[in-house]
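Dear H.,

Thanks for agreeing to be a second pair of eyes. The structure we're designing against is below in token form, covering all 152 positions.
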């Protein structure tokens, strides 16, 4: 009962977001829609490069069902195997081979790992720079007064 006011306040903030900050709301909505459109385009392009005849509507269906696979795969740590197997099954829907579905999922997994690595490196860089300016300077090879290494 004590947390009900906090929950009600959070719910009210979410419901009033579009009225209190319409610019941020529409910007957020636009970015979200752009992200989904790019995911559909990614499926379309990968299948196009694999020489699989697919329309944008079929790519939309595949992307939508891939989202469903991700929800089902939440019980599997890292969603490893579920995503790939699901894409192999989905490839059959458009008349492609299981190997095509596996290739599509591996391409998307590689893209995800690449950008996750970039994000991790950015996070490390930001956390180092916020911790200690001297440590950040030393990590980047910048000389800091009194921080030079001395050998005995």
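And this is the sequence the design step returned. I haven't edited it by hand at all.
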């Amino acid at each position: 009962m004590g947390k009900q006011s906090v929950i009600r306040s959070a719910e009210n903030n979410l419901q009033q977001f579009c009225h209190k900050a319409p610019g941020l709301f529409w910007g957020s909505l636009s970015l979200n829609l752009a992200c989904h459109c790019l995911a559909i385009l990614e499926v379309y392009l990968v299948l196009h490069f694999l020489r699989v005849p697919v329309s944008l509507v079929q790519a939309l269906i595949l992307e939508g069902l891939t989202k469903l696979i991700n929800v089902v795969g939440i019980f599997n740590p890292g969603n490893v195997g579920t995503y790939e197997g699901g894409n192999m099954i989905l490839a059959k829907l458009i008349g492609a081979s299981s190997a095509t579905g596996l290739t599509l999922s591996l391409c998307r997994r590689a893209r995800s790992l690449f950008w996750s690595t970039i994000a991790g490196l950015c996070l490390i860089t930001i956390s180092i720079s916020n911790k200690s300016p001297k440590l950040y300077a030393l990590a980047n090879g910048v000389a800091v007064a009194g921080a030079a290494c001395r050998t005995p």
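Two observations from my side: The first helix runs from residue 4 to 20. Confidence is low (pLDDT under 50) at residues 144-152.

Warmly,
E.
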